[in-house]
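ok new one. same drill as before - structure tokens go in, u give me an amino acid for every spot. 370 of them this time. try not to just spam alanines like last time pls lmao
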């Protein structure tokens, strides 16, 4: 029966390689998991999780295993840093997936996908109202035309030719009876009055029609060309990658892992030691922040970082590792230093890490100590 269980299939290749290296060290040493737990100070249950790929061990546990098995801590530390970045990426993807599942469940619980119709935009609503009004007017027109009109009573108070017999006689005797007579001044005034009344009625009808158009389609009644608006200034807000939740001053005092600033978005511009403890400055270019990380430390050792008028301190717990909240960094991150103090009173600060040539492996925490 094999000693080790198969590693989970969903593990990142770098995490899988790191777990396999830990297994080979334990196998080569001939120690049992219980013996490894006694030698390193970590429980048997924790080592079973580390060796089976269910949990990433802290750096101090990795260094303790290297010392117990006689391996080089520098090589293990390099593999651990790569596995830590891959682990952070996997956790970020899992968080995004869980958020999507939660949103889908909330929508299903509210019935948005089946019961609620999509909301119409104001422009679409106005267009629908206008079309409805036109359809109503079109359907009403034939109905009005077909409706029988009530007979109008005939007026009997109007003058007729019988009231003026002398005009009829003069017309019969005139050679120009067949030609139309020139209108009299009174007739001209009456005709002019009717023309004015017709013009007033036409203007009133045009005003009513224009008011109806304005009510049905606001914003189209003006004939003057609107003055061009000045172009909007580009947004100063930076588009953040998926999983990153803050930047700049909005990150001050917050946890870098919770805000998505760590993992693949972070580098180590400076590193140093305080006694046996390793002090590092971690910098995120995406979030424009930095934080101090302490590892391989004894319980109670602390690391402090100051930048941009803010400072943060972290104390190592039993696993010998901790990191501070974030502070904003607006200048060169290599000039930001973190200092550590051990419980024995030994002090030390980080120094800029030399630039790594292309293709060369990045310096690790273990090599910095040695």
């Amino acid at each position: 029966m094999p000693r080790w269980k198969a590693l989970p299939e969903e593990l990142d290749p770098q995490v899988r390689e790191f777990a396999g290296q830990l297994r080979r060290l334990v196998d080569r040493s001939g120690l049992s998991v219980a013996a490894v737990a006694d030698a390193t100070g970590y429980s048997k249950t924790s080592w079973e999780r580390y060796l089976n790929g269910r949990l990433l061990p802290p750096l101090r546990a990795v260094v303790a295993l290297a010392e117990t098995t006689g391996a080089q801590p520098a090589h293990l530390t390099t593999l651990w840093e790569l596995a830590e970045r891959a682990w952070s990426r996997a956790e970020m993807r899992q968080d995004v997936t869980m958020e999507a599942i939660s949103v889908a469940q909330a929508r299903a619980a509210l019935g948005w996908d089946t019961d609620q119709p999509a909301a119409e935009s104001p422009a679409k609503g106005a267009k629908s109202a206008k079309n409805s009004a036109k359809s109503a007017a079109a359907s009403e027109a034939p109905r009005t035309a077909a409706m029988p009109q009530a007979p109008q009573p005939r007026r009997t108070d109007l003058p007729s030719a019988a009231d003026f017999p002398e005009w009829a006689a003069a017309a019969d005797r005139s050679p120009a009876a067949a030609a139309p007579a020139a209108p009299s001044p009174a007739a001209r005034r009456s005709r002019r009055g009717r023309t004015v009344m017709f013009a007033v009625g036409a203007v009133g009808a045009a005003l009513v029609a224009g008011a109806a158009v304005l009510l049905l389609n606001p914003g189209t009644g003006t004939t003057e060309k609107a003055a061009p608006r000045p172009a909007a200034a580009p947004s100063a807000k930076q588009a953040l990658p998926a999983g990153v939740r803050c930047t700049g001053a909005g990150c001050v005092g917050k946890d870098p892992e919770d805000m998505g600033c760590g993992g693949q978005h972070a580098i180590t511009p400076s590193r140093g030691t305080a006694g046996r403890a390793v002090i590092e400055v971690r910098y995120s270019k995406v979030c424009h922040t930095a934080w101090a990380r302490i590892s391989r430390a004894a319980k109670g050792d602390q690391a402090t970082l100051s930048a941009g008028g803010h400072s943060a301190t972290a104390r190592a717990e039993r696993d010998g590792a901790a990191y501070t909240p974030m502070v904003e960094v607006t200048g060169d991150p290599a000039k930001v230093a973190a200092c550590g103090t051990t419980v024995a009173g030994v002090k030390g600060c980080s120094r800029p890490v030399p630039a790594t040539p292309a293709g060369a492996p990045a310096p690790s925490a273990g090599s910095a100590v040695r």
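The first helix runs from residue 13 to 29. and btw The radius of gyration is 45 Å.
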